[in-house]
Protein backbone atom coordinates (compact mmCIF):
# COMPACT_ATOMS: atom_id res chain seq x y z
CA UNK A 1 0.00 0.00 0.00
CA UNK A 2 1.60 3.28 -1.00
CA UNK A 3 1.21 6.73 0.51
CA UNK A 4 -1.18 7.81 -2.22
CA UNK A 5 -3.53 4.94 -1.46
CA UNK A 6 -3.43 5.79 2.23
CA UNK A 7 -4.15 9.44 1.50
CA UNK A 8 -7.06 8.38 -0.73
CA UNK A 9 -8.55 6.37 2.14
CA UNK A 10 -8.20 9.30 4.51
CA UNK A 11 -9.82 11.58 1.97
CA UNK A 12 -12.67 9.14 1.48
CA UNK A 13 -13.60 9.15 5.15
CA UNK A 14 -13.30 12.90 5.62
CA UNK A 15 -16.67 14.50 6.15
CA UNK A 16 -18.23 11.21 7.18
CA UNK A 17 -18.80 10.03 10.72
CA UNK A 18 -16.45 7.10 10.28
CA UNK A 19 -14.00 7.18 13.16
CA UNK A 20 -12.17 3.94 12.47
CA UNK A 21 -11.52 2.06 9.25
CA UNK A 22 -9.67 -1.22 8.75
CA UNK A 23 -8.63 -2.00 5.18
CA UNK A 24 -7.14 -5.24 3.91
CA UNK A 25 -5.71 -5.13 0.41
CA UNK A 26 -3.51 -7.70 -1.31
CA UNK A 27 -1.77 -8.80 1.87
CA UNK A 28 -1.44 -5.32 3.36
CA UNK A 29 -3.56 -4.14 6.20
CA UNK A 30 -4.03 -0.68 7.60
CA UNK A 31 -6.19 0.66 10.37
CA UNK A 32 -6.89 4.39 10.52
CA UNK A 33 -8.49 5.87 13.57
CA UNK A 34 -9.59 9.46 14.06
CA UNK A 35 -11.06 11.15 17.07
CA UNK A 36 -14.31 12.90 16.27
CA UNK A 37 -15.11 15.45 18.94
CA UNK A 38 -14.78 14.29 22.55
CA UNK A 39 -12.93 11.18 23.49
CA UNK A 40 -14.77 9.25 26.18
CA UNK A 41 -12.95 6.64 28.22
CA UNK A 42 -13.17 3.66 28.04
CA UNK A 43 -13.45 4.07 24.31
CA UNK A 44 -15.79 1.49 22.87
CA UNK A 45 -14.81 0.23 19.46
CA UNK A 46 -17.08 1.85 16.92
CA UNK A 47 -18.46 -0.42 14.23
CA UNK A 48 -15.61 -0.84 11.75
CA UNK A 49 -15.98 -0.27 8.01
CA UNK A 50 -14.71 -3.83 7.73
CA UNK A 51 -15.08 -5.85 4.55
CA UNK A 52 -18.29 -7.42 5.80
CA UNK A 53 -21.31 -8.40 3.80
CA UNK A 54 -23.32 -5.31 3.01
CA UNK A 55 -20.79 -2.87 4.41
CA UNK A 56 -23.47 -0.23 4.61
CA UNK A 57 -21.94 2.75 6.40
CA UNK A 58 -22.44 6.46 6.40
CA UNK A 59 -26.12 6.37 7.32
CA UNK A 60 -27.38 9.74 8.47
CA UNK A 61 -28.35 9.68 12.13
CA UNK A 62 -31.98 10.80 12.10
CA UNK A 63 -34.23 9.59 14.88
CA UNK A 64 -37.42 10.36 12.99
CA UNK A 65 -36.73 7.87 10.23
CA UNK A 66 -37.65 4.22 10.50
CA UNK A 67 -35.26 1.58 9.32
CA UNK A 68 -36.54 -1.48 7.47
CA UNK A 69 -34.13 -4.30 8.21
CA UNK A 70 -33.56 -7.65 6.61
CA UNK A 71 -34.98 -10.57 8.59
CA UNK A 72 -32.59 -12.97 6.94
CA UNK A 73 -29.26 -13.52 5.19
CA UNK A 74 -29.46 -13.42 1.43
CA UNK A 75 -29.29 -11.36 -1.71
CA UNK A 76 -31.26 -8.12 -2.08
CA UNK A 77 -33.30 -7.51 -5.21
CA UNK A 78 -35.29 -4.39 -5.97
CA UNK A 79 -37.72 -6.13 -8.29
CA UNK A 80 -39.35 -9.51 -8.63
CA UNK A 81 -37.65 -10.33 -11.92
CA UNK A 82 -34.77 -9.07 -14.05
CA UNK A 83 -36.93 -7.13 -16.44
CA UNK A 84 -39.55 -6.00 -13.93
CA UNK A 85 -39.70 -2.50 -12.53
CA UNK A 86 -38.49 -2.04 -8.94
CA UNK A 87 -41.08 -2.41 -6.20
CA UNK A 88 -40.34 1.05 -4.83
CA UNK A 89 -38.41 4.20 -5.61
CA UNK A 90 -37.16 7.02 -3.39
CA UNK A 91 -39.98 9.41 -2.61
CA UNK A 92 -42.65 6.79 -3.11
CA UNK A 93 -45.46 6.48 -0.59
CA UNK A 94 -46.04 2.99 0.74
CA UNK A 95 -48.81 1.47 2.82
CA UNK A 96 -48.46 -1.15 5.52
CA UNK A 97 -48.11 -4.57 3.87
CA UNK A 98 -46.65 -3.27 0.59
CA UNK A 99 -43.71 -5.26 -0.72
CA UNK A 100 -40.52 -3.20 -0.78
CA UNK A 101 -38.03 -5.71 -2.06
CA UNK A 102 -37.02 -9.34 -2.28
CA UNK A 103 -34.30 -11.02 -0.27
CA UNK A 104 -33.38 -14.28 -1.91
CA UNK A 105 -32.03 -17.06 0.27
CA UNK A 106 -31.37 -20.63 -0.81
CA UNK A 107 -33.31 -20.09 -4.04
CA UNK A 108 -36.35 -18.86 -2.11
CA UNK A 109 -37.62 -15.38 -2.91
CA UNK A 110 -38.70 -13.73 0.33
CA UNK A 111 -40.85 -10.65 -0.05
CA UNK A 112 -40.01 -7.96 2.50
CA UNK A 113 -43.02 -5.84 3.44
CA UNK A 114 -43.27 -2.57 5.26
CA UNK A 115 -44.96 -2.66 8.65
CA UNK A 116 -45.96 0.99 8.57
CA UNK A 117 -47.32 3.60 6.17
CA UNK A 118 -44.57 5.93 5.05
CA UNK A 119 -42.43 7.54 2.36
CA UNK A 120 -39.22 5.94 1.11
CA UNK A 121 -36.45 8.35 2.04
CA UNK A 122 -33.44 6.21 1.24
CA UNK A 123 -32.57 2.89 -0.37
CA UNK A 124 -29.42 1.74 1.40
CA UNK A 125 -28.50 -1.36 -0.54
CA UNK A 126 -27.84 -2.00 -4.21
CA UNK A 127 -29.60 -4.48 -6.41
CA UNK A 128 -27.88 -7.86 -6.18
CA UNK A 129 -25.97 -7.00 -3.01
CA UNK A 130 -25.64 -9.60 -0.25
CA UNK A 131 -27.31 -8.62 3.01
CA UNK A 132 -27.13 -9.98 6.52
CA UNK A 133 -29.66 -10.42 9.31
CA UNK A 134 -30.62 -7.05 10.78
CA UNK A 135 -29.06 -5.02 8.00
CA UNK A 136 -30.85 -1.77 7.17
CA UNK A 137 -32.37 -1.87 3.70
CA UNK A 138 -34.59 1.22 3.57
CA UNK A 139 -35.18 4.37 5.53
CA UNK A 140 -38.83 5.36 5.80
CA UNK A 141 -40.41 8.52 7.02
CA UNK A 142 -43.53 7.27 8.80
CA UNK A 143 -46.79 8.99 7.92
CA UNK B 1 -7.52 -26.65 -0.91
CA UNK B 2 -10.44 -24.47 0.12
CA UNK B 3 -10.17 -20.78 -0.67
CA UNK B 4 -12.68 -19.71 1.90
CA UNK B 5 -14.19 -21.47 4.89
CA UNK B 6 -17.14 -20.41 6.99
CA UNK B 7 -16.99 -21.17 10.72
CA UNK B 8 -20.41 -22.14 11.98
CA UNK B 9 -19.69 -21.91 15.68
CA UNK B 10 -18.90 -19.21 18.18
CA UNK B 11 -16.63 -18.41 21.08
CA UNK B 12 -13.21 -19.90 21.69
CA UNK B 13 -13.44 -22.69 19.14
CA UNK B 14 -14.32 -20.24 16.37
CA UNK B 15 -11.16 -18.32 17.26
CA UNK B 16 -9.17 -21.56 17.32
CA UNK B 17 -10.36 -22.55 13.86
CA UNK B 18 -9.69 -19.09 12.45
CA UNK B 19 -6.09 -19.30 13.67
CA UNK B 20 -5.38 -22.52 11.76
CA UNK B 21 -7.21 -21.40 8.65
CA UNK B 22 -5.19 -18.18 8.58
CA UNK B 23 -1.96 -20.15 8.80
CA UNK B 24 -3.11 -22.21 5.86
CA UNK B 25 -3.81 -19.08 3.82
CA UNK B 26 -7.53 -19.78 3.75
CA UNK B 27 -9.92 -16.86 3.96
CA UNK B 28 -12.28 -16.95 6.91
CA UNK B 29 -15.94 -16.07 7.34
CA UNK B 30 -17.38 -15.76 10.83
CA UNK B 31 -21.11 -15.92 11.42
CA UNK B 32 -22.58 -14.30 14.48
CA UNK B 33 -25.81 -13.60 16.30
CA UNK B 34 -26.66 -10.05 17.31
CA UNK B 35 -25.40 -10.85 20.80
CA UNK B 36 -21.95 -11.71 19.41
CA UNK B 37 -21.52 -8.62 17.24
CA UNK B 38 -18.48 -7.45 19.22
CA UNK B 39 -16.97 -10.88 19.67
CA UNK B 40 -13.41 -11.95 18.95
CA UNK B 41 -14.18 -14.30 16.04
CA UNK B 42 -15.90 -11.39 14.29
CA UNK B 43 -12.88 -9.18 14.91
CA UNK B 44 -10.37 -11.76 13.65
CA UNK B 45 -12.18 -13.19 10.63
CA UNK B 46 -11.74 -11.72 7.17
CA UNK B 47 -15.48 -11.44 6.75
CA UNK B 48 -18.41 -11.63 9.12
CA UNK B 49 -22.12 -12.14 8.55
CA UNK B 50 -24.88 -11.55 11.08
CA UNK B 51 -27.16 -14.56 10.90
CA UNK B 52 -29.86 -13.85 13.44
CA UNK B 53 -30.89 -12.68 16.89
CA UNK B 54 -29.33 -13.93 20.12
CA UNK B 55 -31.58 -16.99 20.38
CA UNK B 56 -29.51 -19.99 19.30
CA UNK B 57 -32.34 -21.59 17.35
CA UNK B 58 -32.65 -18.53 15.16
CA UNK B 59 -28.94 -18.02 14.70
CA UNK B 60 -26.33 -20.73 15.28
CA UNK B 61 -28.87 -23.49 14.68
CA UNK B 62 -30.48 -21.76 11.73
CA UNK B 63 -29.37 -23.89 8.75
CA UNK B 64 -30.85 -21.59 6.13
CA UNK B 65 -29.13 -18.55 7.59
CA UNK B 66 -25.76 -20.24 7.78
CA UNK B 67 -25.94 -21.83 4.34
CA UNK B 68 -27.13 -18.55 2.92
CA UNK B 69 -24.17 -16.82 4.53
CA UNK B 70 -21.87 -19.35 2.83
CA UNK B 71 -23.52 -18.55 -0.50
CA UNK B 72 -23.32 -14.81 -0.30
CA UNK B 73 -19.67 -14.91 0.77
CA UNK B 74 -18.65 -17.66 -1.62
CA UNK B 75 -17.41 -19.99 1.11
CA UNK B 76 -17.30 -23.53 -0.29
CA UNK B 77 -16.71 -25.26 3.05
CA UNK B 78 -18.12 -24.99 6.54
CA UNK B 79 -16.36 -25.90 9.77
CA UNK B 80 -18.98 -26.61 12.44
CA UNK B 81 -16.65 -26.40 15.44
CA UNK B 82 -17.95 -28.52 18.28
CA UNK B 83 -21.27 -26.73 18.57
CA UNK B 84 -24.77 -28.03 17.98
CA UNK B 85 -24.27 -28.41 14.25
CA UNK B 86 -21.10 -30.47 14.49
CA UNK B 87 -22.95 -33.79 14.80
CA UNK B 88 -26.26 -32.71 13.27
CA UNK B 89 -26.99 -35.15 10.45
CA UNK B 90 -29.64 -32.94 8.88
CA UNK B 91 -27.18 -30.10 8.63
CA UNK B 92 -24.53 -32.30 7.04
CA UNK B 93 -27.06 -33.48 4.48
CA UNK B 94 -28.13 -29.90 3.80
CA UNK B 95 -24.48 -29.02 3.12
CA UNK B 96 -24.06 -31.99 0.82
CA UNK B 97 -27.26 -31.11 -1.07
CA UNK B 98 -25.96 -27.60 -1.45
CA UNK B 99 -22.54 -28.56 -2.75
CA UNK B 100 -20.80 -27.24 0.34
CA UNK B 101 -18.10 -29.33 2.01
CA UNK B 102 -18.85 -30.07 5.65
CA UNK B 103 -15.53 -30.24 7.46
CA UNK B 104 -16.12 -33.36 9.46
CA UNK B 105 -16.85 -36.98 8.92
CA UNK B 106 -19.21 -38.53 6.37
CA UNK B 107 -22.96 -38.82 6.82
CA UNK B 108 -22.65 -42.61 7.10
CA UNK B 109 -19.98 -42.54 9.78
CA UNK B 110 -21.78 -39.88 11.75
CA UNK B 111 -25.07 -41.77 11.51
CA UNK B 112 -23.39 -44.92 12.80
CA UNK B 113 -21.71 -43.24 15.75
CA UNK B 114 -24.77 -41.17 16.62
CA UNK B 115 -26.62 -44.41 17.29
CA UNK B 116 -24.84 -45.47 20.45
CA UNK B 117 -26.00 -49.08 20.22
CA UNK B 118 -24.98 -49.46 16.59
CA UNK B 119 -21.58 -48.02 17.43
CA UNK B 120 -21.11 -50.54 20.24
CA UNK B 121 -22.14 -53.32 17.90
CA UNK B 122 -19.58 -52.19 15.34
CA UNK B 123 -16.89 -52.07 18.02
CA UNK B 124 -17.77 -55.55 19.23
CA UNK B 125 -17.58 -56.86 15.66
CA UNK B 126 -14.09 -55.46 15.58
CA UNK B 127 -13.08 -57.45 18.61
CA UNK B 128 -13.13 -54.55 21.07
CA UNK B 129 -14.74 -55.27 24.42
CA UNK B 130 -17.82 -53.14 25.01
CA UNK B 131 -19.56 -52.12 28.22
CA UNK B 132 -21.87 -55.01 29.12
CA UNK B 133 -25.51 -54.22 28.42
CA UNK B 134 -28.52 -54.76 26.20
CA UNK B 135 -27.87 -55.12 22.52
CA UNK B 136 -31.04 -53.41 21.37
CA UNK B 137 -33.44 -50.66 22.37
CA UNK B 138 -35.74 -51.77 25.15
CA UNK B 139 -39.40 -50.80 24.98
CA UNK B 140 -40.98 -52.74 27.80
CA UNK B 141 -40.32 -52.30 31.48
CA UNK B 142 -40.38 -56.04 32.15
CA UNK B 143 -37.66 -56.73 29.66
CA UNK B 144 -35.64 -53.77 30.96
CA UNK B 145 -35.80 -55.05 34.50
CA UNK B 146 -34.77 -58.52 33.41
CA UNK B 147 -31.73 -57.12 31.66
CA UNK B 148 -30.88 -55.01 34.68
CA UNK B 149 -31.17 -57.99 37.01
CA UNK B 150 -28.92 -60.02 34.77
CA UNK B 151 -26.29 -57.29 34.69
CA UNK B 152 -26.56 -56.63 38.36
CA UNK B 153 -27.05 -53.22 39.97
CA UNK B 154 -25.96 -50.47 39.70
CA UNK B 155 -27.00 -50.06 36.10
CA UNK B 156 -27.13 -47.09 33.80
CA UNK B 157 -29.95 -46.14 31.46
CA UNK B 158 -28.74 -44.51 28.28
CA UNK B 159 -30.42 -42.87 25.32
CA UNK B 160 -29.63 -44.40 21.94
CA UNK B 161 -29.53 -40.96 20.41
CA UNK B 162 -27.70 -39.40 23.32
CA UNK B 163 -24.02 -39.05 23.92
CA UNK B 164 -21.94 -36.25 25.37
CA UNK B 165 -23.59 -36.80 28.70
CA UNK B 166 -27.15 -36.36 27.59
CA UNK B 167 -29.86 -38.87 28.36
CA UNK B 168 -27.97 -40.73 31.07
CA UNK B 169 -29.43 -41.98 34.32
CA UNK B 170 -27.70 -44.14 36.87
CA UNK B 171 -29.87 -46.50 38.90
CA UNK B 172 -28.17 -47.69 42.05
CA UNK B 173 -31.04 -49.58 43.65
CA UNK B 174 -33.47 -51.99 42.07
CA UNK B 175 -36.37 -50.33 43.82
CA UNK B 176 -35.82 -47.12 41.80
CA UNK B 177 -35.49 -48.86 38.47
CA UNK B 178 -39.00 -48.73 37.01
CA UNK B 179 -39.61 -45.10 37.90
CA UNK B 180 -36.30 -44.06 36.37
CA UNK B 181 -37.00 -46.18 33.31
CA UNK B 182 -40.30 -44.40 32.60
CA UNK B 183 -38.73 -41.03 33.20
CA UNK B 184 -35.85 -41.80 30.87
CA UNK B 185 -38.19 -43.06 28.16
CA UNK B 186 -40.27 -39.92 28.40
CA UNK B 187 -37.26 -37.64 28.28
CA UNK B 188 -35.81 -39.18 25.18
CA UNK B 189 -39.16 -38.78 23.47
CA UNK B 190 -39.27 -35.13 24.48
CA UNK B 191 -35.71 -34.05 23.89
CA UNK B 192 -33.91 -36.35 21.54
CA UNK B 193 -34.55 -37.02 17.90
CA UNK B 194 -33.92 -40.71 18.20
CA UNK B 195 -36.07 -42.05 21.04
CA UNK B 196 -35.26 -45.29 22.77
CA UNK B 197 -33.12 -46.31 25.68
CA UNK B 198 -30.91 -49.23 26.55
CA UNK B 199 -29.49 -50.61 29.76
CA UNK B 200 -25.81 -51.02 30.63
CA UNK B 201 -23.85 -52.14 33.63
CA UNK B 202 -22.66 -49.10 35.54
CA UNK B 203 -18.94 -49.52 35.91
CA UNK B 204 -17.89 -47.97 39.16
CA UNK B 205 -14.27 -46.88 39.55
CA UNK B 206 -13.94 -46.50 35.82
CA UNK B 207 -11.79 -43.84 34.24
CA UNK B 208 -12.85 -42.07 31.08
CA UNK B 209 -9.90 -42.56 28.72
CA UNK B 210 -10.27 -41.47 25.12
CA UNK B 211 -8.10 -41.66 22.02
CA UNK B 212 -7.84 -38.92 19.42
CA UNK B 213 -8.08 -40.35 15.91
CA UNK B 214 -7.18 -38.90 12.53
CA UNK B 215 -8.15 -40.75 9.38
CA UNK B 216 -7.87 -39.72 5.74
CA UNK B 217 -9.67 -40.85 2.59
CA UNK B 218 -7.06 -43.49 1.81
CA UNK B 219 -7.96 -45.28 5.05
CA UNK B 220 -4.69 -44.22 6.58
CA UNK B 221 -5.54 -43.80 10.25
CA UNK B 222 -3.48 -42.91 13.29
CA UNK B 223 -4.13 -42.10 16.91
CA UNK B 224 -2.62 -39.15 18.76
CA UNK B 225 -2.47 -40.78 22.13
CA UNK B 226 -4.92 -40.79 24.95
CA UNK B 227 -6.63 -38.32 27.22
CA UNK B 228 -8.04 -38.87 30.67
CA UNK B 229 -11.29 -36.93 31.10
CA UNK B 230 -12.57 -38.60 34.24
CA UNK B 231 -12.96 -35.41 36.24
CA UNK B 232 -16.46 -34.23 35.39
CA UNK B 233 -19.42 -32.54 36.89
CA UNK B 234 -22.80 -33.79 35.70
CA UNK B 235 -21.13 -35.44 32.74
CA UNK B 236 -19.44 -32.21 31.70
CA UNK B 237 -15.66 -32.43 31.70
CA UNK B 238 -13.75 -30.04 33.91
CA UNK B 239 -10.14 -31.28 33.72
CA UNK B 240 -8.45 -33.26 30.96
CA UNK B 241 -4.96 -34.74 30.87
CA UNK B 242 -2.73 -36.39 28.32
CA UNK B 243 -1.48 -39.03 28.60
CA UNK B 244 -3.68 -40.82 31.14
CA UNK B 245 -1.55 -41.22 34.26
CA UNK B 246 -0.56 -44.70 35.38
CA UNK B 247 -1.33 -46.42 32.08
CA UNK B 248 1.64 -48.42 30.89
CA UNK B 249 2.91 -48.08 27.35
CA UNK B 250 1.89 -51.56 26.28
CA UNK B 251 -1.72 -51.05 27.33
CA UNK B 252 -1.79 -47.64 25.70
CA UNK B 253 -0.48 -49.11 22.45
CA UNK B 254 -3.08 -51.84 22.56
CA UNK B 255 -5.99 -49.47 23.18
CA UNK B 256 -4.70 -47.11 20.50
CA UNK B 257 -4.34 -49.92 17.96
CA UNK B 258 -7.85 -51.12 18.73
CA UNK B 259 -9.22 -47.61 18.21
CA UNK B 260 -7.43 -47.27 14.87
CA UNK B 261 -8.64 -50.67 13.69
CA UNK B 262 -12.15 -49.74 14.70
CA UNK B 263 -12.29 -46.56 12.66
CA UNK B 264 -10.75 -48.30 9.67
CA UNK B 265 -13.29 -51.12 9.90
CA UNK B 266 -16.17 -48.67 9.50
CA UNK B 267 -14.56 -46.72 6.66
CA UNK B 268 -14.17 -43.59 8.73
CA UNK B 269 -12.55 -40.38 7.59
CA UNK B 270 -11.78 -37.18 9.42
CA UNK B 271 -11.22 -36.48 13.04
CA UNK B 272 -12.79 -38.41 15.89
CA UNK B 273 -12.43 -39.62 19.44
CA UNK B 274 -12.87 -43.20 20.59
CA UNK B 275 -13.98 -43.28 24.23
CA UNK B 276 -13.19 -46.12 26.59
CA UNK B 277 -13.92 -46.90 30.20
CA UNK B 278 -10.75 -48.12 31.88
CA UNK B 279 -11.00 -50.22 35.01
CA UNK B 280 -8.49 -50.45 37.86
CA UNK B 281 -7.55 -53.96 36.71
CA UNK B 282 -6.60 -52.54 33.29
CA UNK B 283 -9.58 -54.03 31.51
CA UNK B 284 -11.13 -51.57 29.10
CA UNK B 285 -14.45 -51.24 27.34
CA UNK B 286 -15.60 -49.23 24.33
CA UNK B 287 -18.16 -46.64 25.36
CA UNK B 288 -18.85 -44.41 22.37
CA UNK B 289 -17.23 -42.43 19.58
CA UNK B 290 -17.43 -38.69 18.91
CA UNK B 291 -17.16 -37.53 15.34
CA UNK B 292 -16.38 -33.84 15.91
CA UNK B 293 -13.41 -31.87 17.09
CA UNK B 294 -13.58 -31.68 20.86
CA UNK B 295 -12.94 -29.06 23.45
CA UNK B 296 -9.96 -31.00 24.79
CA UNK B 297 -8.13 -31.48 21.50
CA UNK B 298 -5.83 -28.81 22.88
CA UNK B 299 -4.18 -31.00 25.47
CA UNK B 300 -3.28 -33.52 22.73
CA UNK B 301 -1.80 -30.67 20.71
CA UNK B 302 0.33 -29.63 23.68
CA UNK B 303 1.95 -33.04 24.11
CA UNK B 304 2.23 -34.05 20.44
CA UNK B 305 3.03 -30.67 18.91
CA UNK B 306 0.45 -31.20 16.15
CA UNK B 307 -2.20 -28.80 14.87
CA UNK B 308 -5.25 -31.03 14.89
CA UNK B 309 -7.55 -28.49 13.21
CA UNK B 310 -5.13 -28.17 10.29
CA UNK B 311 -5.10 -31.91 9.79
CA UNK B 312 -8.87 -31.95 9.92
CA UNK B 313 -9.15 -29.29 7.21
CA UNK B 314 -6.51 -30.99 5.07
CA UNK B 315 -8.39 -34.27 5.22
CA UNK B 316 -11.71 -32.60 4.43
CA UNK B 317 -10.13 -31.05 1.35
CA UNK B 318 -9.24 -34.54 0.15
CA UNK B 319 -5.63 -34.43 1.24
CA UNK B 320 -3.59 -37.19 2.83
CA UNK B 321 -2.69 -37.29 6.49
CA UNK B 322 0.72 -35.71 6.97
CA UNK B 323 1.81 -38.12 9.70
CA UNK B 324 2.33 -41.82 10.25
CA UNK B 325 1.83 -43.51 13.61
CA UNK B 326 5.59 -43.53 14.22
CA UNK B 327 5.68 -39.75 13.87
CA UNK B 328 3.38 -39.37 16.86
CA UNK B 329 5.33 -39.03 20.08
CA UNK B 330 3.77 -37.84 23.31
CA UNK B 331 6.29 -35.68 25.13
CA UNK B 332 5.79 -34.94 28.77
CA UNK B 333 2.41 -34.41 30.36
CA UNK B 334 -0.40 -32.00 29.55
CA UNK B 335 -3.31 -30.79 31.66
CA UNK B 336 -6.28 -28.63 30.72
CA UNK B 337 -8.61 -26.77 33.05
CA UNK B 338 -11.86 -25.52 31.56
CA UNK B 339 -12.59 -22.07 32.92
CA UNK B 340 -16.35 -21.56 33.20
CA UNK B 341 -18.21 -18.35 33.88
CA UNK B 342 -20.18 -19.57 36.84
CA UNK B 343 -21.08 -18.91 40.41
CA UNK B 344 -18.62 -20.99 42.49
CA UNK B 345 -21.28 -22.18 44.93
CA UNK B 346 -24.40 -22.69 42.89
CA UNK B 347 -22.70 -23.34 39.53
CA UNK B 348 -25.25 -21.14 37.83
CA UNK B 349 -23.90 -19.23 34.82
CA UNK B 350 -22.37 -15.87 35.61
CA UNK B 351 -22.80 -13.15 33.03
CA UNK B 352 -21.57 -9.60 32.82
CA UNK B 353 -18.82 -7.43 31.37
CA UNK B 354 -15.21 -8.40 31.94
CA UNK B 355 -13.39 -5.40 33.30
CA UNK B 356 -10.03 -7.03 33.79
CA UNK B 357 -8.59 -9.97 31.89
CA UNK B 358 -4.97 -10.98 32.27
CA UNK B 359 -4.23 -14.51 31.04
CA UNK B 360 -1.09 -16.33 32.20
CA UNK B 361 1.84 -17.04 29.92
CA UNK B 362 5.38 -18.30 30.14
CA UNK B 363 6.82 -21.69 29.26
CA UNK B 364 4.40 -24.52 28.60
CA UNK B 365 1.26 -22.41 29.05
CA UNK B 366 -1.48 -21.97 26.48
CA UNK B 367 -4.80 -20.14 26.77
CA UNK B 368 -7.60 -20.68 24.24
CA UNK B 369 -10.27 -18.06 24.68
CA UNK B 370 -12.52 -15.58 22.91
CA UNK B 371 -12.64 -13.38 25.94
CA UNK B 372 -10.92 -10.01 26.30
CA UNK B 373 -11.11 -7.01 28.57
CA UNK B 374 -14.40 -5.25 27.89
CA UNK B 375 -16.07 -8.35 26.43
CA UNK B 376 -19.59 -9.09 27.53
CA UNK B 377 -20.28 -12.65 28.65
CA UNK B 378 -23.73 -13.61 27.45
CA UNK B 379 -26.15 -15.64 29.48
CA UNK B 380 -27.53 -17.16 26.26
CA UNK B 381 -24.61 -19.37 25.48
CA UNK B 382 -22.63 -22.03 27.24
CA UNK B 383 -20.42 -20.77 30.00
CA UNK B 384 -17.00 -21.97 28.82
CA UNK B 385 -14.95 -18.80 28.53
CA UNK B 386 -11.39 -20.04 28.42
CA UNK B 387 -9.28 -23.16 28.32
CA UNK B 388 -6.05 -23.12 30.25
CA UNK B 389 -3.63 -25.79 29.09
CA UNK B 390 -0.15 -26.50 30.42
CA UNK B 391 2.51 -29.01 29.59
CA UNK B 392 5.67 -29.99 31.45
CA UNK B 393 8.13 -32.88 31.35
CA UNK B 394 6.12 -34.93 33.84
CA UNK B 395 2.81 -34.92 35.68
CA UNK B 396 3.96 -33.46 39.02
CA UNK B 397 5.61 -30.56 37.22
CA UNK B 398 2.55 -30.10 35.03
CA UNK B 399 0.39 -29.82 38.15
CA UNK B 400 2.78 -27.25 39.65
CA UNK B 401 2.73 -25.33 36.41
CA UNK B 402 -1.08 -25.40 36.31
CA UNK B 403 -1.24 -24.07 39.88
CA UNK B 404 1.11 -21.26 38.92
CA UNK B 405 -0.90 -20.48 35.80
CA UNK B 406 -4.24 -20.52 37.65
CA UNK B 407 -2.81 -18.18 40.28
CA UNK B 408 -1.72 -15.75 37.58
CA UNK B 409 -5.01 -15.84 35.68
CA UNK B 410 -6.89 -12.64 36.50
CA UNK B 411 -10.51 -12.35 35.41
CA UNK B 412 -12.63 -9.65 36.96
CA UNK B 413 -16.25 -8.72 36.38
CA UNK B 414 -17.73 -12.22 36.50
CA UNK B 415 -17.40 -15.28 38.68
CA UNK B 416 -15.32 -18.13 37.33
CA UNK B 417 -14.45 -21.71 38.16
CA UNK B 418 -10.77 -20.83 38.66
CA UNK B 419 -10.99 -21.25 42.45
CA UNK B 420 -12.47 -24.74 42.02
CA UNK B 421 -9.70 -25.72 39.61
CA UNK B 422 -7.14 -24.53 42.16
CA UNK B 423 -8.74 -26.75 44.81
CA UNK B 424 -8.62 -29.77 42.54
CA UNK B 425 -4.97 -29.13 41.66
CA UNK B 426 -4.18 -29.07 45.40
CA UNK B 427 -6.14 -32.20 46.17
CA UNK B 428 -3.97 -35.06 47.45
CA UNK B 429 -5.86 -37.70 45.54
CA UNK B 430 -5.61 -35.74 42.33
CA UNK B 431 -1.90 -35.35 42.77
CA UNK B 432 -1.40 -39.01 43.58
CA UNK B 433 -3.40 -40.21 40.61
CA UNK B 434 -7.04 -41.16 40.78
CA UNK B 435 -9.03 -44.24 39.87
CA UNK B 436 -12.29 -42.39 39.51
CA UNK B 437 -13.57 -38.85 39.71
CA UNK B 438 -15.77 -39.11 42.77
CA UNK B 439 -13.20 -37.45 45.03
CA UNK B 440 -14.07 -34.08 43.57
CA UNK B 441 -17.62 -34.32 44.86
CA UNK B 442 -16.67 -32.55 48.01
CA UNK B 443 -15.67 -29.51 45.98
CA UNK B 444 -18.99 -29.41 44.20
Task: Describe how the helices and strands are arranged.
The complex is a heterodimer of chains A (143) and B (444).
Chain A: H1 3-13, E1 20-25, E2 28-33, E3 66-69, E4 74-77, E5 93-94, E6 99-105, E7 108-113, E8 118-123, E9 130-131, E10 136-142
Antiparallel strand pairs in A: 1-2, 3-10, 4-6, 4-9, 5-8, 6-7, 8-10
Chain B: E1 4-7, H1 11-23, E2 27-33, H2 40-44, E3 47-52, H3 63-73, E4 77-79, H4 89-97, E5 101-102, H5 107-114, H6 116-125, H7 141-151, E6 155-163, E7 166-171, H8 177-191, E8 197-201, E9 207-215, E10 221-228, E11 232-233, E12 236-237, E13 239-242, H9 249-265, E14 270-278, E15 284-290, H10 297-304, H11 308-316, E16 333-340, E17 352-353, E18 356-358, E19 365-369, E20 376-377, E21 384-392, H12 395-407, E22 410-412, H13 418-425, H14 428-432
Parallel strand pairs in B: 1-2, 1-4, 2-3, 4-5
Antiparallel strand pairs in B: 6-7, 6-8, 9-10, 9-14, 11-12, 13-16, 14-15, 16-21, 17-20, 18-22, 19-21
Helix pairs in contact in B: 12-13
How does this model look, in words?
The complex is a heterodimer of chains A (143) and B (444). With 143 residues, chain A is mostly beta strands. Chain A folds into two domains: 1-51, no CATH class; 66-142, OB fold (Dihydrolipoamide Acetyltransferase, E2P) (Beta Barrel). Chain A is built from one helix and ten strands. In chain A, strands 3-10-8-5 form a four-stranded antiparallel beta sheet, with no helix packed on it. A four-stranded antiparallel beta sheet of chain A has the order 7-6-4-9, with no helix packed on it. A two-stranded antiparallel ribbon of chain A has the order 1-2. In chain A, strand 1 and strand 2 (28-33) form a beta hairpin. The termini of chain A are far apart. Mean pLDDT of chain A is 81; it is low at 38-60. In chain B, helix 2 (40-44) links the parallel strand 2 and strand 3. A five-stranded parallel beta sheet of chain B has the order 3-2-1-4-5. Chain B has 444 residues and is of the alpha+beta class. Chain B is globular and about 60 Å long. Chain B is built from 14 helices and 22 strands. Among the domains of chain B are: 4-103, Rossmann fold (3-Layer(aba) Sandwich), CATH 3.40.50; 132-201, Dna Ligase, domain 1 (2-Layer Sandwich); 332-444, D-amino Acid Aminotransferase, Chain A, domain 1. The model of chain B has no long low-confidence stretch (mean pLDDT 94). In chain B, helix 12 packs antiparallel against helix 13. At the A-B interface, strand 9 of A face strand 3 and helix 3 of B.
